[in-house]
């Protein structure tokens, strides 16, 4: 599988063509594990949410798992950020 060097929503949106569910999923992995960036469960949840919305079942499972470690407010913020990302892109 390809390694993606995308560390933010702004950078992810700069590529050519449509961003696939796999790219969103990799962003969730990067942020949930802290690979190259500080671990950020809100960002990870947002990326997994975007990937799941495009049909990535593995992303839905990861989102569910990290949700167990997040507060209700953090989940709500992640969902808000995912909606905002989808509106802007």
Instruction: Please give the alpha-carbon distance between the first and last residues.
Output: 25 Å
- Measured as a percent range, the helix fraction is 55-70%
Mean of the pLDDT scores? 87
User: What does the largest sheet look like?
Assistant: none
How many runs of DSSP E, i.e. beta strands?
0
* Uncertain residue ranges: 1-7
Strand content: under 5%
Q: What is the alpha-carbon Rg in Å?
A: 12 Å
Q: What's the number of domains? A: 1
Q: Count helical runs.
A: 5
Question: From the helix content, strand content and strand pairing, which structural class follows?
Answer: mainly alpha
Please characterize this protein's 3D structure:
The protein is 65% helix and 0% strand. It is built from five helices and no strands. The chain has helices spanning 9-12, 21-33, 41-53, 57-67, 72-88. The longest helix has 17 residues, at 72-88. The protein is globular and about 35 Å long.
Question: Quick recap of the structure?
Answer:
With 89 residues, this protein is mainly α. The protein has 5 helices and no strands.
Question: What are the key terms here?
Answer:
mainly alpha; 89 residues; disordered N terminus
Write the layout of secondary structure elements.
Blueprint: H1 9-12, H2 21-33, H3 41-53, H4 57-67, H5 72-88
Helix pairs in contact: 2-3, 3-4, 3-5
């Amino acid at each position: 599988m390809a390694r993606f060097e995308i560390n933010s929503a702004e950078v992810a949106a700069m590529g050519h063509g449509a961003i696939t569910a796999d790219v969103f999923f990799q962003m969730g992995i990067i942020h949930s594990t802290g690979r190259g960036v500080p671990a950020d469960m809100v960002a990870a949840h947002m990326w997994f949410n975007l990937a799941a919305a495009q049909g990535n079942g593995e992303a839905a499972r990861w989102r569910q798992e990290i949700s167990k470690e997040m507060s209700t407010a953090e989940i709500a913020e992640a969902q808000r950020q995912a909606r905002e990302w989808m509106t802007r892109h």
